[in-house]
Amino acid sequence: MEAFQYRGDQLYCEGVSVAELAEKHGTPLYIYSQAALVGSLKALQDAYAEVDPLICYSVKANSNLGVLKVLGDHGSGFDVVSGGELFRVQKAGGDPGKTVFAGVGKSDPEIAQAIEAGVLMFNVESEAELESIARVASGMNRVAPIALRVNPDVDPKTHRYTATGQKESKFGLDIERALRIAETVKDLPSLTMIGMHMHIGSQITTVEPYAKAVAKGVDLIARLRAMGHPIAWYNMGGGYGIAYRGPEAKPVKEFADAILPGLKATGCRLAIEPGRVIAGNAGILVSRVLYTKQSGDKRFLIQDAAMNDLIRPALYESFHRIWPVTVPPGLPAPPADYEAAIDGTEPWDVVGPICESGDFFAKDRALPPLDKGALLATLSAGAYGMLMASTYNTRPRAAEILVDGDAARVVRRRETLDDLVAQEIGL
Ligand code: LLP
User: Fold this and answer.
1) Among positive and negative, which fits the CA dihedral 21, 24, 28, 33?
2) pLDDT tens column, 187-242
3) I need a surface site. Which of 114, 122, 126, 257 has the fewest CB within 10 A?
């Protein structure tokens, strides 16, 4: 079942009317579908079933406790990049033993917190970090499980801000360096190298980069084992792309087919760190049209959601489908093809109230004429949406709703103005 679909002229999330939720809870409003979250998790579990994968949902994509709880309850592990994300996983009842700790800049207190919690392994990104983990673990009389994050030096063909697996990236270790560092790990009794990690980028829509990366990984694992390291985990990272416009990304099964043969040759257990592919199409952002205006030949739809609520278009010029929650007579549900002309529409810039020209959700987007008060749905907003939100222009952050069938509950209440100044002291 599609989680978000039109019934007649009305957009629904599962069994709940989006317009009614907006009426009740106000806008901007994030709405998530539990069926979509669980459905994508299950699609991954099924695609990799033959190797009994550990899906470590990448918390950075959407860290709402309600979302984490649903995923944890359905067997997901987690990928965290900070003590804060680990705290969230634990708050949501997630299992630290199924959690990997990644990130280029782990502090000593965060390392200690993760050892204490009993994370499955640390993804190590530099020699200096390796030393810190060894020192902290030794001080706690513990042995920390680690995986080196290796840069396979493949081009993931994605936005330059979300490419990570190339040699010149700030992430991970190039293969030669990884091998050199692996030698030193043998002399550090507070570390045990049980895995190898790769993450090549995000919103990757083709399978070739993964196939290339795995080929390099297979070879590297053999060399690490030859040094005596008990490599039992191959962590393939995240990055599996989703459909923002149409069917631009491959189904998860095709990624699995590219990864599995190499993985099986290593005899390792597979971990993956998907974020976007689980949460992205499980969420929408609902906004209300405040004003329409024309400037020269340009038409602007000024809505109450802005770059502080969803920064992706401003930061990456990313595309999100936008369509009215109540479809005006004669128009279809959101068009499958945005490049084609759509009768009854005209080009609009969809912008927010923030004082920056970068505050837009879409430029020259085909939309029907809409009046003040109309509701708009920005689709594919479940990943890297709310948790990249800020309070810029002193705008309280949106509320978040989780829908399960015919039931909807608030999983984060709307911020108040008092919330916004609560930390400011010393007047
Ligand atoms: N593992 C690691 C080590 C990562 O750095 C990331 C994402 C993931 C897993 C999850 O990647 P995913 O499966 O979600 O693609 N804010 C950007 C995306 C940044 C991704 C950062 N790392 C956006 O809105 O497109």
Assistant:
1) negative
2) 999 999 999 999 999 999 999 999 999 999 999 999 999 999 999 999 999 999 99
3) 257
